[in-house]
Fold this protein.
Amino acid sequence: MSVCQISILSRDDIERVHEKTLYVLEETGVKVLSEKALDTLEHGGALVDRETSTAYLTEHMVNEAIKAMPKEVSLCARDPAQDMKAPRRGPPYMATNGTAVYMWDLDTGEKRATLGDDLKDFTILSDAIDSIDYLWPIVTAQDGPEKARGLNDLVISLRNSTKHFQGEGLSEKEAEDMVRVASAVVGGEDELAKRPIFSTIQCPICPLEFERGSIEATMVFAKAGIPVVSMSMALCGLTAPVTLASTITIVNAENLASFVISQLAKPGAPVVYSSESSIINMRTGEIKYGSIEEVIIAAAVGQMAKSYEAPSMVGSFGLGGDKPGISATVAEMSMTAMTNLSLTDFSSGIGSLDQAKGAALEQLIIDSDVWESIRSLRRDVSIDEDHFAVDLLEKVGPGGTFLGEPHTLRNMRKELFIPDSEKAALYNSYSFDAGNEGIVDQARKRVRSILAEHKPEPLDDDVDRAIDAIMSEYA
């Protein structure tokens, strides 16, 4: 089998990035703003400078972490039919985007702050859409408990979807309570470790810094068997040197440092190598998603992840304009889609607007349709004796045609992406000259229809009561 994908590093390049990464981890070190994590690292063999909260990681520590971490990971769901397993050869599993702070109101068409009910609507909609495989909390529930927003996001998701949820824990206490909630759903902590129905994204602070709450949460999740996605968000020219080689090295160093901490907390803890790194707009200083460099970084770090046999989340998708519709440039659309041709098992970005600051229910519909129409680009392609069909070629001969051959009828839907007429018309409607208003109006109608008709499978009453008891601690 062969897969359409982008690879830019040679074997020598991969070795060179790894070598420079080891140098950075051992000589520059990583700042870790947690005494617990520093104690763990020191016990594991790191040289620790307590005055600067810096840990210097040895090559042996990195190698042991790579050896200990699982090479396969399962992101499970309340509905086992929606479990995800990595590595994945075909198109990446796709999620919504994460934690936007405003949305375009479905009824008024105006921008406004996001609330828990909005996250509930996004979750129900995502639960109903087949091309969305798992859920980020796409908007921030700004009316939720301030010190437990990740926990609140998890509760809303579990109550309104049977798909896997990927959130974030920002303190040791919040992480412990997220584990308590999920354990109540699946029947205990042992069952949760076997079937983790949620995972977390724990972002280092680039460059090379781990905030106290996040890294202590990472250690809680590692011990509970919850997969941790160590998402590096390096920005060329701002939080990383402007050279791509250095940015790639920083992404690699942050991921490997996170792996070391997870494996010291519990050998065999599930981890996912991750990057959502890009550049800044050198004229404005703002982040620039959808850049050419974002594709290059994703492709390179995807190769680094696979060199360690680590599951990966390095691509992103989203049309990303300032308002619902298709308002991104041709280049931005091409680049954001191309990141999914990197060596990645998981991806995200559905429903995002305004460089991930905003979101819209209509955009979630539009992005899902577009993703559905292009995701098969990274499918398996069979290059073997059965598929060369040289006997058929010999039969038809030079100058012949294959349209009427039984072989064509038998194989066309296996080899070609052929949507039905309704889907084809839908996909064709998403063009720059179609007019945004018509596209958005159509999406808005579908949002209302789905929210009115789709009823996610509820949790058991006793589970709901157990979750309410946990949440009451934050009232």
In short: The chain has two domains: 67-378, 382-415. The longest strand covers residues 228-232. The chain has a mean pLDDT of 93.
